[in-house]
Amino acid sequence: MTAAGDRRGQGRSSRYRAAPTTTEGLAREAVVLAGAGAAILLQVSHPSVGAGVAQHSDFAADPLKRLRHTLQFVYAAVLPEASAARERVAGWVGAAHGPVRGTDATGRSYSAADPQAQLWVTATLYWAAEQARWRIWGEWPDVVTGGPTGLAVPADPAVPADPADPADPADPADQAVAKAEAVYRDYAVLGTLLGMPADLWPEDRAAFARYWDAAVVNLEVTDDARAICRDLFAAEAAPWWLRRLMPLVRFVSAGMLPVRIRLQLGLDWDGADSRREDALWGVLRAVYPRLPLRWRQLPARLVVRTLRV
């Protein structure tokens, strides 16, 4: 093969198979939507968020509305072509969240302006995107273990580095780690647009892993969250095509959830489900990266168009 042919092959490989290494690139990928169901369930599993959705949202009447608004919010925050809509979308969010306050079933007060709830919602969006990303393209090179909730945990920066192996800016692995940290830091903008103080976002991925594991271990799913989960997957008011997809959405969402949250939500799962999940993601790993970018990025383009009207 000629040198020109080699270059064409390399370009094709890069175009079809390269893993996204920026927040913008990751947000454009359709496969990230596979984490949407798990993100929603985790959000409403927070008592404040669950009570707010149950008491102030028409979630059951329009199950696509929360997803649509979440995608508009994310794309306006991170995609350059949607940046003109950022202030408008932030205004929508503020207006929608302003009245969301009250008392939950246990008598605890809640508010959409609660910084810890805003942090949790932002954390679920980052976590869900990473769950989809690593299932297709693999872990970042510094991941050393898994936490009690199944989150991939980077090496702790508090552990002294090996002087015989210092970070090398020219090393592809070190470059990838730097990109992973940049993607993580960029997700803070979602929280600040919600009203979260910027310094509340954990400092780095290792700090996030500690925050996430502690939050999930201490999370107690409420009846509000279980009712929302049932409504989500029943999809009684959804279009017919979405109702047909709901068994798959339920399966993928349940497989992504931390085990203790899945159990508390009452989502059945067994060894056969785990094997089917592995097979499903194995097929997606083989097929998805080879799809043309215009197909992989189609949902993002369609949602961005709704922000231009």
UniProtKB/TrEMBL annotation:
<feature type="domain" description="ER-bound oxygenase mpaB/mpaB'/Rubber oxygenase catalytic">
    <location>
        <begin position="178"/>
        <end position="286"/>
    </location>
</feature>
<dbReference type="InterPro" id="IPR018713">
    <property type="entry name" value="MPAB/Lcp_cat_dom"/>
</dbReference>
<dbReference type="Pfam" id="PF09995">
    <property type="entry name" value="MPAB_Lcp_cat"/>
</dbReference>
<dbReference type="GO" id="GO:0016491">
    <property type="term" value="F:oxidoreductase activity"/>
</dbReference>
<protein>
    <submittedName>
        <fullName>Uncharacterized protein (DUF2236 family)</fullName>
    </submittedName>
</protein>
<feature type="domain" description="ER-bound oxygenase mpaB/mpaB'/Rubber oxygenase catalytic">
    <location>
        <begin position="27"/>
        <end position="139"/>
    </location>
</feature>
<feature type="region of interest" description="Disordered">
    <location>
        <begin position="1"/>
        <end position="21"/>
    </location>
</feature>
